Amino acid sequence: MSRKRRMFDIEIPDEPETTFPVGKAEADEPAAAKEGRRGPMATAISETVESSRERARIEAEIRAENDALATEHVRLKRAGLVTDLIPLDAIDTQKLIRDRAHGADFELAELIESIREIGLSNPIRVEPTGQGRYELIQGWRRLSAYRALLAETGDAETWGRIPAGIAAKGDELERLYRRMVDENMVRKDISFAEMAQLALHYAMDPLTEEHDPEKAVAILFKSAGYQKRSYIRSFIRVVESLGETLLYAPEISRALGLALAQKLDEIPGLAAAIRTELKDWDTRSIKDELEVLRRFAGQSIGQGEDAAVVEAAKPKPTPAPAAKARTTFQIQRPQGSAKCTAANGRLEIRLPRDFSAIDRRKLEAAVSAMLERLE
């Protein structure tokens, strides 16, 4: 018996009531739904772009901050406010002809002792020259004191480096000289002879534009009054003629310097006569030298210039020191410069050295031997 297949009729509507799109979201589908159906690759690319944007923003902020810091650093350097510890052997002193005349510096020992006890209160000022070297701009005596302390103690850890303000390279030479002059002008004890020496040094410098010392006075001492600049120009005559001969030029008073300058102009050969009298007289005191200068400055030329010069050139006996006269001189020792002062009833030796550390018997023997030789 065979079975019969039954057939069913299926009715298909002409227009579907609902459509089912493939691979596309509805136009009005929410963004959150779209994001939820984004593929891993698209998500990674989006995150990378956002990260790059954030990194670029941070880098731009860092660059702007670095530029601001660099600008401020240059400003501070130009003002000499950036300091560091600079090795002494890395500092040169060739750019400026120094304001200190050759000869004894009686105040250096005091500065050395002050630095030894309380340290350096005011850093020197240097300018970088490349390859780890620097040029001194301000602080000649402070640098000299540090070098003396290093030579005396051998303590490179303490005295081998000096605090220094590092100035931006490129200041004009005239500006550097002006700054050096102004630094010294605030000293109450700076003499007309020292100011005249400053003008001479400026004119001697081959790198400066002005080589006339009297014109250099107008450049260096702009802040000084006309009368003071006139006095400095008069002292230039004295320092030019006698600078290498005089041991105590800073002790010359204004009145004596002006009178001496006038006599040097009036009497030819007067400078040679003064040099002849002071030659080889290394033991003279301040008083001795000033007495010689006063005598020449007050010399009459009534008998004619030639007679005055001959009289001036005659050798004069060494004046005997008065009871209260004082003789001062310096002796160079390995520990530094020993300042010696001899007066009536007193002999003083000042040297940057601890004499109390010397064995008493050795000290007594040395002093006794010195006194024996003085008999």
UniProtKB/TrEMBL annotation:
The protein's name: ParB N-terminal domain-containing protein
Matching SUPFAM superfamilies: ParB/Sulfiredoxin
Any single Pfam family the record assigns to this protein: ParB_N
Database matches in InterPro entries: Chromosome_partition/occlusion, ParB/Sulfiredoxin_sf, ParB_N, RepB_N
Residues covered by region (Disordered): 1-40
Domain ParB-like N-terminal: 86-150
UniProt feature, compositional bias: Basic and acidic residues: 25-38
Domain of life, source organism: Bacteria
